[in-house]
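TL;DR need structure tokens for one chain.
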Amino acid sequence: MIKGSIVAIVTPMHEDGALDWKRLDALVDWHVAEGTDAIVAVGTTGESATLDLEEHIAVIRRVVERAAGRVPVIAGTGSNATSEAIEQTLAAKTVGADAALLVTPYYNKPPQEGLYRHFRKIAESVELPQILYNVPGRTGCDLLPATVARLAQLPNIVGIKEARGELSRIRELLDLELGADFAIYSGDDATACASILAGGHGDISVTANVAPRKMHQMCAAALAGDRATAEALDAELQALHKDLFVEPNPIPAKWALCQMGMIENGLRLPLVPMDEAHAPRVRAALQAAGVMA
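>> reply
TL;DR here they are.
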């Protein structure tokens, strides 16, 4: 089971939107050095929505090759079309990803039975560990705990990233006793510490993009049951947890990494660079976390 701080890594781009392979390599190396426990490639934070299929798989391949077994790589392969999700998950397996992260189908608004059949079809089609991803604020549908319990019975569905941002939902999932090998990850940095202390297994994180070492330390302390240390570290990160969302993710995270000299501030339309009116607030959050002087 993958545990700890799992970065939902940004996809570096030049200012014209072209993929920046050199910066991607550098980010992977940095995360390994800083203690990040695993990397999600081409998730929401990685701008999966604006990468074509060839680029999507190329980024996963590059992260796998650069990580070189030093940390697990989880490939974002979800789609609102079941056939496309299968295609992307098969491709991720072919290029060596350790697992896949599959978002609930967006826009379609399927019922719970449709969600169950969607994920079951992918699981039956591709022999790769698969993590469900529930983020109703983006997708327009909510994967309910009862449906998760049904899906957890499939051998290669190994966990869920729960991003409702409600600790009560994490606790509801934990109460289901989904099995010792089924991982429950927070998808909300602001409640991740409490989620892990309650029995969760880690955090698939935006904050880890800019504060990887401290996020690793916080998650490790929480997993060890060291509440005092985990909560103290999390307190230093709370402003980042909040202010990296002053505009839609990953706009502020990319701005922050640009300020840190890690990447260019390149995004693809319809995303645009962060409004400079937010700069003092995000900069102050970086300073509070000890990321910038």
